[in-house]
Amino acid sequence: MPSRRAMLAAAPALLALSATRPASATPATMRDAIAAFLGEGGTLREGRVAIDIPPLVENGNTVPIAITVESPMTPQDHVQRIGVFTERNPLPQVIVAHLGPRAGRAAITTRMRLATSQRIIAIAAMSDGSFWSESTEVVVTLAACVEG
Questions:
Q1: pTM value surpassing 0.85
Q2: Has residue 63 been placed in a domain?
Q3: Does residue 61 lie in a domain region?
Q4: CATH code of the domain covering residue 56
Q5: CA-to-CA distance for 85 and 31, rounded, in angstroms?
Q6: If we measure between CA atoms, which residue out of 83, 82, 75, 68 comes closest to residue 128?
Q7: For 15-51, what is each residue's pLDDT tens digit?
Q8: For the chain, what is the domain count?
Q9: pLDDT, tens digit, for every residue of 58-116?
Q10: Is residue 62 part of a domain?
């Protein structure tokens, strides 16, 4: 059994460990992740992208999301990548899906965890170098991505 002196010496370290929280993205880190996705000189425009996600989520542990992009998906005009970004999850970049004209249609579906209520942005990188986006707000009543 540790002595009283050892316990008192360890108390500040234990308190610091118990007060730490998991890293969390912020609107600024989300902007940085989006800038990295766009690359040098990429300009983001609104439109052509649709996000299908419930606006009110009871449990953030498994949230269905579907992203569709208006595109003919021909070799000359197609979606190359679709990225999904959040502002309050532990990491701002949730997924990047790579597509090509042989995909047939520009659509992805998945499930994600949401740490709390937040804004979600989906961005499509097109073969002509343009970037299109859509954003939505999601309210989460029971958060995920947290410890303790």
A1: no
A2: yes
A3: yes
A4: 2.60.40.2470
A5: 9
A6: 75
A7: 444 444 445 778 889 999 999 999 988 899 999 999 9
A8: 1
A9: 888 899 999 999 999 999 999 999 999 999 888 899 999 999 999 999 999 999 999 88
A10: yes
